[in-house]
């Protein structure tokens, strides 16, 4: 009888801990509202918003979001969708140095205000290259998580950054599969 009660108590404790868990293996749950911006001016950030709408994520999107244009403290999470686009940077009339400064300033302000920072590669291998990798490397010290399309990490670039910093990385095969990652991390 005593063993039975101890076993029952142990099962109840495990069940309670299981229900109290944050929902991810890493224990990271991201909060809303979310600020979303491009880090490199590729179309990936706009694609992110399409997927975010699927799960009814509360977000604000601005391609050129900056610390001067918004009160970052009103958000709980900052998503920086990385991917340098020469065409996008040209259309925005900024160079890569100005873009790095803009997104790095945002990441710094986010950390100062207690936001979680997610670095997201949504367009895969097509948005890898020296400029994109430089943006990611500059933002890496601020990352709380990486959401990465699988083919963008064939060389282990994102995996190495994730492991070095001890932050989680979620991968997905197709853009629409990001929905499952967002559902998991935002507890939807």
Note down, in words, how this protein is organized.
With 188 residues, this protein is α/β, with parallel strands linked by helices. It is built from seven helices and six strands. The chain has helices at 2-20, 44-54, 86-91, 96-112, 130-139, 157-165, 178-185, and strands at residues 34-39, 59-61, 77-82, 116-121, 145-149, 169-172. Helix 4 runs parallel beside helix 5. It is globular, with a radius of gyration of 19 Å.
Through-space gap between termini? 41 Å
Q: Determine the fraction of residues in helical runs and give it as a percent range.
A: 40-55%
Report the uncertain regions.
1-23
Shape by Cα distribution: globular
Find the structural class using helix and strand composition.
Answer: alpha/beta
Number of domains: 1
Percent range for β-strand residues: 15-25%
By DSSP, the count of extended strands is 6
Biggest β-sheet strands, sense, barrel: 6 strands, parallel
Q: What does the radius of gyration come to? A: 19 Å
